[in-house]
Design the sequence.
């Protein structure tokens, strides 16, 4: 039988030093896996160094893999008794990981669900099943509007857009074409393959008066008048206002990094990589409000979980490591290095963080953000991509394409929940 750690103190900040274990003092090595992203690897190296210094009997070996290969490697390694003891996963994959028995629930005597509910931002509760937490994040994400300061200045834009109408006007002023009428600089990037499927669902649909899902995200609800208005706004950026082009420079973030896009909607995780682009002068603002001044946002996160491979002393060590990487100290390090937002208000809502010119818009956005509970995130995103492609490539009516997307996504949800 596993020996569970006992939490001695869980008030205010969480301290991994406050945990004791009956696991012997013999050295133990555990493995941690995450996908490769420079800033995330750098941050985790710092956390591992801090953890090992405070826990001299435990060594943490980190492995990372390209994003495209990551899920496949995790799914193959753990059932074979190999791979990570603590694993990073996207929150939208939780159901798949539980069903495949890749991760195990966090023990309530270490991670008390009521205390976690109190200490973390509410969206983290999506990681709970039958009043047990299976995973917890170090950081959370929201969306914001990135803008190129130099391109704004060239276009004579002296005010960051605060509403959707102002967004369109700024994009018009900033778009450029060549002599043949081909777009060479977009006013704003678009692409459902990136973050726009979240912007459409959780932001635009709500701002136009709708609710994207019902029944705790088990029923699709955007094939409505509000959804049609949201899709009209989104596709109209290209078809009506001519301020963007689907597939421009392949990826929206590439266009922004290359100073070929004036504005770009993306997550807080993009901050670290933008800081590395020489000569790029950029700023961040909260997502534009609708005409009534109403704002909406989307929040997501990557979480850490203890795998079913972890047992005995490795299990105890994995819980201690989990406790540290979800502590206040770890969250501040992650914010400073990666740019992702602390998962606890005790860290995120400090004056220094909430008023920061870069982090602040994302942190403030958490107050009005919604988190989509995915059954199959990649499949549901694909339906958003096809919805837009039908409009652009087949000249489909907006409502017809909305209804087709809603029916296809509902089938995905029904297949999972029934």
Sequence:
């Amino acid at each position: 039988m596993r020996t569970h750690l006992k939490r001695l103190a869980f008030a205010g900040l969480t301290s991994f030093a406050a945990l004791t274990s009956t696991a012997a003092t013999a050295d133990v090595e555990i493995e941690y896996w995450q996908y490769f992203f420079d800033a995330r690897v750098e941050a985790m190296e710092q956390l591992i160094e801090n953890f090992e210094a405070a826990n001299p009997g435990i060594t943490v070996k980190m492995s990372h893999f390209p994003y495209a290969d990551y899920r496949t490697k995790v799914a193959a390694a753990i059932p074979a008794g190999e791979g990570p003891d603590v694993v990073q996963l996207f929150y939208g994959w939780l159901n798949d990981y539980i069903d495949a028995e890749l991760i195990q629930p966090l023990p309530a005597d270490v991670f008390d669900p009521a205390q976690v509910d109190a200490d973390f931002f509410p969206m983290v509760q999506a990681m709970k099943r039958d009043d047990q937490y299976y995973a917890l994040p170090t950081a959370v994400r929201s969306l914001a509007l990135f803008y190129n300061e130099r391109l704004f200045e060239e276009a004579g834009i002296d005010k960051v857009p605060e509403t959707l109408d102002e967004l369109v006007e700024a994009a018009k002023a900033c778009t450029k074409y060549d002599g043949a009428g081909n777009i060479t600089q977009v006013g704003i990037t678009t692409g459902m393959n990136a973050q726009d499927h979240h912007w459409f669902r959780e932001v635009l649909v709500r701002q136009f008066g709708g609710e994207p899902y019902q029944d705790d995200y088990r029923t699709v609800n955007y094939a409505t008048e509000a959804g049609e208005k949201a899709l009209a706004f989104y596709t109209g950026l290209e078809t009506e206002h001519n301020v963007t082009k689907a597939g421009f420079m392949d990826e929206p973030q590439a266009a922004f990094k290359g100073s070929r896009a004036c504005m770009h909607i993306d997550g807080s995780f993009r901050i670290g990589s933008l800081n590395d682009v020489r000569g790029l002068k950029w700023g961040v603002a909260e997502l534009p409000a609708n005409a009534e001044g109403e704002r909406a946002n989307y929040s997501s996160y990557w979480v850490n979980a203890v795998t079913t491979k972890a047992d005995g002393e490795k299990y105890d060590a994995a819980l201690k490591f989990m406790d540290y990487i979800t502590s206040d100290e770890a969250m501040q390090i992650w914010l400073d290095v990666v740019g992702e937002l602390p998962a606890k208000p005790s860290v995120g809502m400090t004056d220094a963080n909430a008023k920061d010119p870069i982090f602040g818009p994302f942190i403030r956005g958490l107050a009005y953000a919604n988190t989509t509970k995915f059954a199959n995130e990649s499949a549901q995103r694909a339906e958003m991509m096809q919805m837009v492609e039908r409009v652009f490539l087949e000249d489909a009516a907006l409502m017809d394409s909305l209804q087709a997307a809603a029916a296809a996504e509902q089938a995905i949800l029904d297949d999972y929940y029934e």
Summary: The chain has 17 helices and 19 strands. Residues 35 and 70 are 6 Å apart (CA to CA). The domain at 142-297+373-417 is CATH 3.40.190.10 (D-Maltodextrin-Binding Protein; domain 2). Residues 398-417 form the longest helix (20 residues).
